[in-house]
Structure formats: structure tokens, C-alpha cells
Model the fold of this input.
Amino acid sequence: MPLLKGKKNIGHNIETEEAHGKPHAQAVAIALDVARRSGANIPKKKKRVARGIAKAIRRKRK
Done:
């Protein structure tokens, strides 16, 4: 069964992928990818900054 396109169908697509045996994180990634490809305005996940680098940046700002 093909996945549905659009932002409103992300939850349904996640359930569909999990029902087919995919892990939750992979199902979310697939559903968001389908929504983005269909033109939905969904921002990419923000990258985490390593803890040591974040501390150094904070110290430098003071």
C-alpha cells in the first residue's frame, strides 16, 4: 500500500510503516521524507552540538 502524501497524513504513514515491521525511528523518518517530497513545509531536524563544544562556546561568550 503506498503511503499518503501531505503533512496531515504523517501519523497515518507512521502507523502503516510500523504495522509492516519497521522500527519507530525509521517509520518517522520515512513518513517525514514522504511529506517533504510532496511539498509540505517541514524543517529538518536540528543538529545537536557536542557537550564539550557547547561549554567552550558558552565560556567564550562571557
Notes: Residues 7-61 form one domain. The chain is about 55% helix and 0% strand.
